[in-house]
Amino acid sequence: MKKQSVLRVAGLVTGMWLTGCASFEPAMRGSDLLRSRQPSAQQTVKGLEISIEEFASEQKSRQAFDAHLASSGVLALLVRAENNGTASYKISQQAITVTLDGQALSKIDGTDAAHQSATSEYAGKALGWTVATGPFAILLWPATIAGSAAHTRSVNRRIEQHFESLQLNNAVLRPNQVAPGFVYFKLPENLKQLQSLIVEMQVTEEPGGAPVMFNFKLPAITLG
Hints:
Layout: H1 2-20, E1 41-45, E2 48-54, H2 58-65, E3 74-83, E4 88-91, E5 96-100, E6 103-104, E7 107-108, H3 110-116, H4 118-132, H5 135-139, H6 141-165, E8 171-173, E9 178-186, E10 193-194, E11 197-206, E12 211-218, E13 221-222
Antiparallel strand pairs: 1-2, 2-3, 3-9, 4-8, 4-11, 5-6, 5-11, 7-9, 10-13, 11-12
Helix pairs in contact: 1-6, 3-6, 4-6
């Protein structure tokens, strides 16, 4: 009887942990990137329109990633290429560079960006909720740890997939096509504001055309 009671309580606490702890619920999906947005900077060359939008501020970052990426040292930039011309252009993520106060920032992929920012923030929230369950968590520690570990692994994978799905893919952009996606960069530690943020992007006219350069200076951004 006592064993059954303990199991019932263990199940209750684990269920409370799984339903009550932090969840990952970003408002933005991949289909949302195709819509026209208000960019931070925009330039058109030969009918190819490139726009850059920062997601460094906390409000915008949480909208897209349910986490404040910049506070974890990750800069997310939404790049949107729209081909209104007659030629085709090769779009490559590797041809995008960012400098901050003259210092080049290192590019990272979606998985690394997720690990450095959103998954670590989620783990902190989950740990805080486990502690908040008080004596039940301590008494039933094996059950709560097993449940929380499985749940955290599942959510972490969802976070990685979300970052990857929003990432800008290399593509040949034909007339009347749009290619949107995020690129991620590592930020220096303890930044409060982004100033003199320069984004450069090189695209190539296909087939075998000359490179076309885009240069953007983004307005100062307060990270909060």
